[in-house]
């Protein structure tokens, strides 16, 4: 009788949903994954999905290095992979568990890390987001200096609070590589970044997503994915450009954590995004061009019409990928401290 009672109790717990579900913990950028896909994944796999967010790779890396545990999947930018591998924080991938990725990965986005330690998720580049109604019609923001000197900005500019983006673009503007590890190059870039900081009202990596539509900011340094999201609903009011004098670019990726306790779920989660139907749904949610073969052709006409939804050769030529600077990161940190303190 006792055995029957135990079985009956277990059956009741399962029926009412009280039994503990497996959980997947994901550490990513804010508003970067279609919630409907997450809900579908939860339903298909009988699990929970918990999302935590970070606002910079450096913040994410510092938290993991300090011992933050429990994450199964993280979504850093690829330039920080070298540090993650050296710190033994992420697994080498078992590609047999990623059949959809192997089938649909667009090799145009291949790198030394892809499909070895990471699965590429989205192409990112940085440009200028602006309110068309606040500037003359011929103001297209084709130069980074326009962001801070164009008539009408009135100081209502939002600048990223990101060491590699801001210093990278300042390096490009002074004729150097965005990844330079030469001290004199950074010495030239710092005054440019300082001058930009003086002209902006806020430094933030996310505030422009609401601040541009609301009119809090007239122009902002912005990621292409955020811009595409806004253009989908506000193309008459909002413009976006990638300056002709160059910019930074990168690939955000999926990685499986070394200490993950739900690795099978982690692989299933990553593989889901490379199904073409899911990739279209996700890209039209977050505005991020994904490295999935056939994606652009499968997009709705509305999204095909949005500039930068296709990663063209012309766009790529304007971009320099951010790369890891190894033991020279301290040089960047000191330069960045100088920018923030205006000393």
Structural commentary:
The structure is a single chain. The protein has 16 helices and ten strands. Helix 2 links the parallel strand 1 and strand 2. The protein has two domains: 164 residues, Periplasmic binding protein-like II (D-Maltodextrin-Binding Protein, domain 2), CATH 3.40.190.10; 151 residues, Periplasmic binding protein-like II (D-Maltodextrin-Binding Protein, domain 2, 3-Layer(aba) Sandwich). Strands 1, 2, 3, 4, 5, 6, 7, 8, 9 and 10 form a ten-stranded mixed sheet that branches. Helix 7 crosses helix 8. 42% of the residues lie in helices and 16% in strands. The chain is of the alpha/beta class and 343 residues long. The radius of gyration is 22 Å and the shape is globular.
**Principal-axes shape call:** globular
How many individual domains? 2
Which architecture name of the largest domain does CATH use? 3-Layer(aba) Sandwich
Main pleated-sheet profile: 10 strands, mixed
Low-confidence runs of at least 5 consecutive residues: 1-7
Considering the protein shown, what is the CATH homologous superfamily of the largest domain? Periplasmic binding protein-like II
Q: Beta-strand level of the residues, as a percent range?
A: 15-25%
The CATH topology of the largest domain: D-Maltodextrin-Binding Protein, domain 2
Q: Specify the CATH class of the largest domain.
A: Alpha Beta
Helix content range of the residues, please?
A: 40-55%
Secondary-structure element order, N to C: HEHEHEHHEHEHHEHEHEEHHHHHEH
What would the average pLDDT be, to the nearest integer? Answer: 91
Number of continuous helical runs: 16
DSSP strand count: 10
Q: Please compute the radius of gyration using only Cα atoms.
A: 22 Å
Distance between the termini: 78 Å
Broad structural category: alpha/beta
């Amino acid at each position: 009788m006792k055995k029957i009672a135990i079985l009956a109790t277990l059956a009741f717990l399962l029926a009412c949903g009280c039994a503990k579900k497996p959980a997947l913990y994901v550490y990513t950028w804010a508003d970067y994954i279609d919630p409907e896909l997450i809900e579908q994944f939860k339903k298909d796999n009988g699990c929970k999905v918990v999302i935590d967010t970070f606002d910079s790779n450096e913040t994410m890396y510092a938290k993991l290095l300090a011992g933050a545990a429990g994450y199964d999947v993280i979504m850093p930018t690829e330039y920080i992979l070298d540090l993650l591998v050296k710190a033994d924080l992420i697994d080498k991938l078992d590609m047999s568990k990623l059949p959809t990725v192997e089938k649909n990965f667009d090799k145009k986005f291949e790198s030394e890390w892809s499909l070895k330690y990471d699965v590429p998720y989205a192409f990112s580049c940085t440009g200028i987001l602006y309110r068309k109604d606040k500037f003359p019609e011929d103001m297209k923001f084709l130069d980074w200096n326009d962001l801070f000197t164009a008539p009408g900005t009135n100081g209502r500019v939002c600048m990223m609070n990101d060491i590699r983006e801001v210093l990278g673009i300042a390096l490009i503007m002074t004729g150097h590589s965005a990844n330079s590890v030469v001290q004199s190059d950074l010495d030239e870039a710092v005054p440019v970044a300082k001058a930009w900081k003086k002209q902006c009202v806020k430094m933030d990596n996310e505030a422009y997503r609401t601040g541009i539509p609301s009119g809090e900011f007239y122009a902002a340094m912005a990621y292409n994915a955020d811009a595409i999201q806004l253009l989908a609903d506000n193309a008459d009011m909002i413009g976006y450009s990638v300056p002709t004098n160059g910019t930074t670019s990168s690939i955000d990726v999926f990685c499986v954590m070394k200490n993950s306790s739900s690795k099978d779920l982690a692989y299933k989660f990553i593989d889901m995004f490379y199904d073409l139907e899911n990739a279209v749904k996700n890209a039209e949610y977050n505005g991020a061009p994904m490295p999935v073969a056939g994606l652009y052709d499968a997009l709705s006409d509305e999204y095909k019409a949005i500039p930068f939804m296709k990663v063209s050769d012309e766009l790529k030529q304007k971009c320099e990928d951010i790369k890891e600077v190894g033991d020279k990161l301290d040089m960047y940190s000191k330069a960045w401290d100088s920018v923030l303190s205006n000393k």
